[in-house]
Amino acid sequence: MPDLVAHQLTKEYQSAGERLQILRGVSLEMSAGENLAILGPSGAGKSTLLHILGGLDSPTAGTVRLRGVDPFELAVRKLAEFRNKNVGFIFQDHYLLPQLSALENVLIPVLAQQRVGPESTARAERLLAAVGLEHRMSHRPGELSGGERQRVAVARALIMNPILLLADEPTGSLDSVSAQAVGEILCDLPKQENTILVCVTHSEALASRFQKRVFLKNGTFVAEPQVSVTT
Ligand code: ADP
Ligand code: MG
Question: For ligand 1, is residue 13 a contact (CB within 6 Å)?
Answer without folding.
Answer: yes
